[in-house]
Amino acid sequence: MKLKFEKNLDHQSKAVKNTVSVFDELYVQLPKKQGAECINPKVDKNSYAYERNIRELQKAQEIDTRYCDARNNIIDVMMETGTGKTYTYTKTIFELNKALGIFKFVIVVPTLSIKAGTLSFLKSESARSHFMDDYSKTIEVHIVESQKSSKGNKSGFPPAVRSFVEATATQNKIQVLLINAGMLNSDTMQKTFDQTLFDRYAIPFEAIAATAPFLIIDEPHKFAQENKTWEAIKKMFPQFIFRYGATFPDKELKRKTVFGTTETIKIKDYHNLVYQLTSVDAFNSNLVKGVVGYVTEFSGSNNALLRLTDTDGKEAHFELIENNSQKKIVLTKGDDFERAHSAMHGLQIVQLNKTTVLLSNGLELKKGDKLNPYSYSETLQDRMLQKTIFHHFELERELLCREVRIKPLTLFFIDNIEEYRNTEGHLRKTVELLIKAEAQRRLYSEENEFYRAYLQKTIDNIAGTHGGYFSKDNSVKDEEVEKEINEILHDKEAILNLQNPRRFIFSKWTLREGWDNPNVFQICKLRSSGSEISKLQEVGRGLRLPVNEYGNRVKDSNFFLNYFVDFTENQFVDQLVKEINDKSGSVSIETPLDSLNDDLISQIVKLYHFDDKNALLEELDEHNVLKRDNSFKQGGLDYVRAHFPLAFQGVDSSKIRKATQPKKTIRIRADKYSKLKEFWEQLNEKAILEYQFKNEQQFQDLFVDYLKNESRSANRSFEKCTLVEIVNRIHIQDKRAYVSEERAEYHERKQSFSTMSYSDFLKELSKMLFVNIKTLHKAFCSTPTDINLYLNIATIRAIKQNFEFFLLANAFTKYTVGYQKVSNAIHPTKLTNAKGEPLAEIPAAEVGILSENQTVAHNYLFDELFFDSELERENILQNIDSVTVFTKIPKNSIKIPVAGGKTYSPDFAYIVQYKNQSQQLHFVIESKNVPNDNALREEEKLKIRHAVAFFKGKVNIHFKTQFSNDKIMPLLQETYYNN
Question: What is the β-pairing status of strands 409-413 and 370-371?
Fold first, then answer.
């Protein structure tokens, strides 16, 4: 297979034509001094034609003429990621050589990986033959690389600089010096050597400057003009600097207003921008793949994340992320994870060293590993790996069973390099197990002859299916690693060959910018970005349209890049949409604006059919919207949003804000707490749950029932677990980007493999469940489940997790439970300190994540309205005279133990006074935002039943469930009159 480049793609041809047109009618002078054959012709920009050409190009493409500066030698080309930037500037090199005779170019790139990608393109046989056909010339690349110094050796002038400078003009070659930012700033380029070039130049920068080069910068946002790299660029005295990129930095400008005052504005740091291909243009013209964002949420909206940030062998440091807030926790050996999160009761640290933390469920955590507190039988990374590999094989089958095949690749960004590079590393072993299991499962039923053979080749060489590149690999001498790196960085044709089983690529962020492969169809982000990198840069590794098995670009289908992130980045797609719109001049309706800017005025005039700008401004003046300088008067922005919504991207923000925003605490009314105190202390009494079995046989029968139920279930926990998948699709319409969301449940497949003996399996399961080994053995012998297929730690965790729910589901029917008070200690609580005194305030998120600026009921414990549902909101706002005091119970403050090791927390507590003032009724209310009992999840019904049992027998405490159709007052009155 050889990659083939299309000639005369419209967007690339326009970029090349516009760049070369800058030099129309400019005077070109051939060099006459010593060494003229090694020097570029001189192009005179000090003429009217230079500015005229730029302004005409900008006017034709509707580019702001503020980006024209005839005094400047910088020429900018803005091209969105994935649209062929490297190809475009390479073709421009050939066209400038043809038009002006320029034969020496310097290409400056920011990083080694981009340098490797650029070199791979320029030296590839595909590119060389492609341009040879059109120009009968090739490019000779001189690569500036670091030199190993040796004692007493001062004369080693950089060989690439020497060969570039001394190269003469020929009919069949163009000279290109390729250098990265690190080498530009190195001592090598600036120091004085013993040897000289042309008997004059002993400093590399001076020697390059003598050739009067044209200079190309790739990724201009990495080369701010105030940093030292830019100073190094200027030392080469390039005649012209061409900046090619999708992202350009901002700069601040001061300007005088019509009133004589000075204002500061931000504009893009463009200089003589002559071509612009925006992200909306790229998506709208089908020049790149679409993007589908996959955000995984755990069932039941239990979206929290506990991440191991560090371990020193004595202490393990964790970070908890939940409800948009972060919390740091330090645990040591023997500590219960309930300290980190209430849902993790019973999970403990068994051992820890400087690299690993071993948990009581058998799970080993490495630095950077993440757990979901509600489902911790495996790490979040393992789940995302399973999901991504499953989707890869789904996509692979579709693309490889086409008439003309396309080989898809998947790229993983990871944290822990050693866990991948080490053959015994957890990440590497997990990846290979998942690939093998998925390939074997599909091979069993695959009918397509070619794909069957491809799957068999995969199984025969699992290690060959994946490869990685990390910056530290540059110093590693390993034949297999070097082969991986060569394919990933340099030989796209080899990695896309259908005879090559490699299709999973791993990196840290080394492949983040500059590198791409047209057949990357999936990116799985197992690590955070680490910095505020452009979201388009992140997805850019896979935006380019794919090539087929013959190396031809495929344009006849709508292709999508699948981008996998965990729920902590559930805003990723929204951020990407915002970036697309911002770069295209669209304004979001949520964007705070101080004034009506020119872009927004143009949009309103166009969309609402005003005759001109003045007609719009006159209407706004009539409604007292703007000041003389077009800044908004009070309420002015709201008027514009309300009357001209089509000019904005997106919809109005909700008037309900989250509790994690400005207001973070809620105050307790001390006088109200004094009335609640006795009831509150009753609610906070500590109790344990008792499983009441008659004998061991009754428990064994229950466990047998569980195993039989598993074998009958379509969703066997040994093989699958349920995740909720949010799929966000980006659409371009009317030059704006929009996002649609689809939610679906899917079943994650687990592998059928055994990694331990049956006896070891029983011992581990016995310790996990606190169940007699003989009882477990008898149970397995009494069921049709062939447990020998699943003798591994994942099965043990799955049994533990699912049997716990089975216990919950069968409480009160197949066995009974009871509650036993265990302690007299009550305080501190969520409302009180250790002395039993009420706190002044508590975190608002403990009460609700939503809020409104409304007056709460006069007998409510808190002074503000925070809530989680409309039903809760109504309760808090309603004044009921017979209620002495009531409160929303802070989250997880009252934890009623339920079967299966979980806990349950009700929502409201009410004290109702009899008319004769002689007696009070205490109510505990569980509010459910569903219409009736039928709409409740079964698990919730079971927990409510436990709550009824828990409060039964307590004096004057009544437990009630409130549904969305129930008003709180009739619910209270019903029990009130019955008593």
Answer: unpaired
Q: What are phi and psi of 932, to 5 degrees?
A: -160, 180
Segment 343-356 mean pLDDT: 85
- Nearest-CA neighbor of 232 among 195, 260, 204, 213? 204
Amino acid making up residue 925: I
- Structure tokens belonging to residue 280: 């909306």
pLDDT for residue 390: 94
Rounded Cα distance between 111 and 119, Å, is 12
Strands 316-322 and 304-311: what pairing? antiparallel
Eight-class DSSP state of 329: E
Residues 6 or more apart whose CB falls under 8 angstroms from that of 308 comprise 316, 317, 318, 357, 365, 366, 367, 368, 369, 370
Q: Match 């006795």 to its residue by tokens.
A: 678
Q: Exposed/middle/buried for 133, CB within 10 Å: 0-12, 13-18, 19+?
A: exposed
| Dihedral in degrees, nearest 10, Cα atoms 701, 707, 713, 714 | 180
Residue 766: φ, ψ to 5° = -60, -45
- Distance CA(386)–CA(382), nearest Å, equals 6
Query: Which tokens hold the place of 416?
Result: 């822990």
For residue 404, give every residue at least 6 positions away whose Cβ sits within 8 Å of its Cβ, in sequence order, or none: 548, 549, 550
Scanning 608-669, the segments in alpha helix (DSSP H) are: 613-622, 636-643
**Sequence-separated (6 or more) residues with CB below 8 Å from residue 839:** 668, 831, 832, 833
Q: 730 in helix, strand or coil? A: strand
Token reading at 175: 């000279």
Q: Is the pLDDT of residue 164 over 90?
A: yes
Contact assessment for residue 367 and residue 383, using Cβ atoms and an 8 Å cutoff: no
Q: Which of 8, 209, 32 is nearest to 95 (CA)?
A: 8
- pLDDT tens digits, one per residue of 788-839: 888 877 688 778 878 888 888 888 888 888 888 777 788 888 899 988 999 9
In eight-state DSSP terms, residue 862 is B
Does the pTM surpass 0.70? The reply is no
Q: How many residues does the chain have?
A: 979
Identity of the highest mean pLDDT range in 58-67, 279-288, 614-623, 814-823: 614-623
